[in-house]
């Protein structure tokens, strides 16, 4: 039996009418832009764009401000984008990226409070109450998911079970023995958990009511599947460490998109080629500006996430516009089982092995709960051996090298030279058969 | 005494075995014998041809990855225990055998065994010393055809 759904608002700021919200946004944008001038990078970027914070007279003026990209974040490694003194920071997290060094993000004590409150808002919107017990099956570490949700749950006043990631039988034991009400993890992990729970015949003994999923793209089909299997309601939320972590947007009980927390962020949706805003309701790249961050303000951060925005009113009373699921990326990043992976990393791993050509194709599929990554690699004649043991060894080394880089065990298929399609210009290395867009 | 064997890489998908076979057929090259090794990821086709160099050319022209190795062929009487005796010998001599395959001669009452040794020279020496008939390519073609 699925639980009753009840609409509850955690913070009345979520229901600010659009006019008052616009006034608040403008005032905060001016302040945030002025604060960003403490960062040499933003100071230079504003100068190059020929604007100053004083030029911001209306919300539309945000379009005069320069964009910030992931490359800018990398160039300012480790903490070059901080707008406060090191003495004032209270927490450092990092992006889940696996390319060499992470992108660090810092929080002041006040930032931590803001963040916890933003997470609390979407958790409450999606059923969490102070009386509940919530289990966090995100990894606890640099990744913002684990601690972000942890603090949000504490802010609501519910009990946290900080299970962290992995060890599914143990997760199920905790869920069952502690009578956990709310599950927090990636959707693919939830599906995996549900399948194992079904095999172990323990679903009936679970008290789970709600789940909050994030950290990777998923679909309505997956939602239905997980909800049917576990007899729960599953909610989607969105965020990224470069901006704050989880807490940028989240679903209410009506689940018609994720409400942006617009008193803390200005979200634009642009055409990634022309950089112009797309028409209302059209797909585009989300660009996010923080309004209240102290340690690391972000100005017009290009998320590379493709989604659309619905500005029609929602009956829950929240006034934040709602974003669709993330339906794609502007770059070639893949998210596999919650881990960010770039094809170039797989290429590096392949090239570490002599005798393989730099011709490869990555195929992603999701036949069951988990993403499967298949890497097709062309072999070169000089490595081909008549001995099965040598060929098997080559195959196994490829699996190992790729797994070392991406953290997920791939299927590796050796293919003949010249059998993979050749590209003039930018190669298409990834075929995603996961059907993430509904 | 060594004999050239061609190995061809096969992807694990339908129709892959047909590609080298067709290439040899249209070049008019006859296959004396073959063996196929496979895992669920890929396969290796091993071929003995009368004209291996031409075969290699034809296969490569058809887009196949080809590897040439030297194997050792011996004949044994086609009766129970014929193979076991030789394997015993190989084992006792401590010779490293990678793989082998067998077929029967058309003309005589004999089986032909094809061995891929790590060290074919030593293997030939040991086999011959023990009275095993190691055959050269001319003899092989004569027996097989």
Observed structural traits:
heterodimer; A: 438 residues; alpha/beta; Rossmann fold; GMP Synthetase, Chain A, domain 3; 12-stranded mixed beta sheet; 4-stranded mixed beta sheet; 20 strands; 24% strand; globular; B: 145 residues; alpha+beta; VC0802-like; Alpha-Beta Plaits; 2 domains; 7-stranded antiparallel beta sheet; 5 helices
Description:
- The complex is a heterodimer of chains A (438) and B (145).
- Chain A has two domains: 12-331, ANL, N-terminal domain (Rossmann fold, 3-Layer(aba) Sandwich), CATH 3.40.50; 336-432, 2-Layer Sandwich (GMP Synthetase, Chain A, domain 3), CATH 3.30.300.
- In chain A, the strands form four sheets. In chain A, strands 3, 4, 5, 6, 7, 8, 9, 10, 11, 12, 13 and 14 form a twelve-stranded mixed β-sheet that branches. In chain A, strands 19-18-17-20 form a four-stranded mixed β-sheet, covered by helices on one side. In chain A, strands 1-2 form a two-stranded antiparallel sheet.
- Chain A has helices at residues 18-36, 40-49, 70-75, 109-125, 144-156, 168-177, 187-199, 220-230, 343-351, 388-406; strands spanning 89-94, 104-108, 133-136, 159-161, 182-185, 210-213, 233-240, 245-251, 258-260, 265-270, 283-290, 301-310, 322-323, 328-329, 334-336, 339-341, 356-365, 372-379, 411-415, 430-432.
- Chain A is globular and about 75 Å long.
- Chain A has 438 residues and is α/β, with parallel strands linked by helices.
- In chain A, helix 4 (109-125) crosses helix 5 and helix 6 packs across helix 7 (187-199).
- Chain A has ten helices and 20 strands.
- With 145 residues, chain B is of the alpha+beta class.
- Chain B has two domains: 2-69, VC0802-like; 71-144, ACT domain (Alpha-Beta Plaits).
- The longest helix of chain B is centred in the middle third of the chain and has 11 residues, at 82-92.
- The radius of gyration of chain B is 16 Å and the shape is globular.
- The interface between A and B is medium-sized, with 19 and 20 residues.
């Amino acid at each position: 039996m699925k639980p009753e759904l009840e609409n509850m608002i955690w913070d009345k700021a979520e229901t600010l009418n659009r006019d008052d919200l616009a006034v608040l946004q403008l005032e905060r944008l001016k302040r945030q832009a002025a604060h960003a001038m403490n960062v040499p990078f933003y100071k230079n970027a504003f100068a190059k764009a020929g604007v100053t914070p004083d030029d911001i007279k209306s919300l539309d003026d945000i379009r005069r401000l320069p964009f910030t990209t992931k490359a800018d974040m990398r160039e300012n490694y480790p903490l070059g984008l901080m707008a406060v003194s090191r003495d004032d920071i209270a927490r450092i997290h990092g992006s889940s990226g696996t390319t060499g060094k992470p992108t660090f993000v810092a929080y002041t004590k006040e930032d931590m409070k803001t963040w916890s409150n933003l997470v609390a808002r979407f958790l409450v919107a999606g059923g969490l109450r102070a009386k509940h017990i919530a289990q966090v099956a995100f990894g606890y570490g640099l990744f913002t998911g684990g601690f972000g949700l942890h603090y949000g749950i504490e802010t609501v006043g519910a009990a946290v079970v900080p299970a962290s990631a992995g060890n599914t039988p143990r997760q199920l034991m905790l869920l069952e023995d502690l009578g956990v009400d709310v599950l927090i993890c990636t959707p693919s992990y939830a599906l995996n958990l549900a399948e194992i729970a079904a095999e172990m015949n323990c679903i009936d003994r679970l008290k789970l009511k709600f789940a909050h999923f994030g950290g990777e793209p998923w679909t309505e089909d997956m939602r239905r599947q997980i909800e049917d299997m576990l007899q729960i309601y599953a909610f989607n939320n969105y965020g990224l460490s470069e901006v704050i972590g989880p807490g940028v947007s989240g679903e209410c009980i009506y689940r018609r998109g994720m409400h942006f927390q617009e008193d803390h962020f200005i979200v634009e949706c642009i055409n990634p080629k022309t950089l112009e805003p797309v028409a209302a309701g059209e797909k585009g790249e989300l660009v996010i500006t923080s309004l209240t961050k102290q340690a690391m303000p972000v100005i017009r951060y290009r998320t590379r996430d493709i989604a659309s925005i619905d500005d029609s009113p929602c009956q829950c009373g929240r006034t934040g516009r709602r974003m669709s699921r993330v339906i794609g990326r502007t770059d070639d990043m893949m998210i596999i089982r919650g881990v960010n992976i770039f094809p170039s990393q797989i290429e590096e791993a392949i090239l570490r092995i002599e005798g393989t050509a730099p011709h490869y194709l990555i195929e992603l599929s999701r036949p069951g709960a988990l993403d499967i990554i298949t890497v097709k690699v062309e072999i070169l004649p000089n490595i081909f051996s008549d001995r099965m043991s040598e060929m098997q060894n080559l195959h196994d080394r490829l699996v190992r090298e790729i797994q070392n880089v991406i953290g997920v065990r791939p299927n590796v298929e050796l293919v003949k030279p010249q059998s993979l399609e050749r590209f003039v210009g930018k190669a298409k290395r990834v075929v995603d058969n996961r059907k993430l867009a509904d | 005494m060594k004999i050239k064997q061609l190995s061809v890489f096969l992807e694990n998908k339908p129709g892959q075995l047909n590609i080298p076979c067709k290439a040899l057929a249209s070049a008019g090259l006859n296959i004396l014998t073959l063996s196929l090794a496979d895992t669920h990821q890929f396969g290796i086709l091993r071929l003995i041809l009368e004209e291996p160099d031409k075969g290699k050319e034809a296969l490569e022209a058809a887009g196949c990855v080809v590897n040439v190795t030297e194997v050792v062929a011996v004949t044994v009487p086609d009766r129970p225990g014929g193979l076991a005796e030789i394997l015993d010998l190989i084992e006792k001599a401590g010779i490293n055998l990678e793989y082998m395959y067998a077929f029967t001669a058309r003309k005589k009452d004999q089986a032909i065994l094809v061995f891929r040794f790590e060290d074919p020279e030593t293997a030939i020496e040991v086999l011959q010393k023990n009275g095993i008939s190691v055959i050269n390519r001319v003899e092989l073609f004569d027996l097989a055809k």
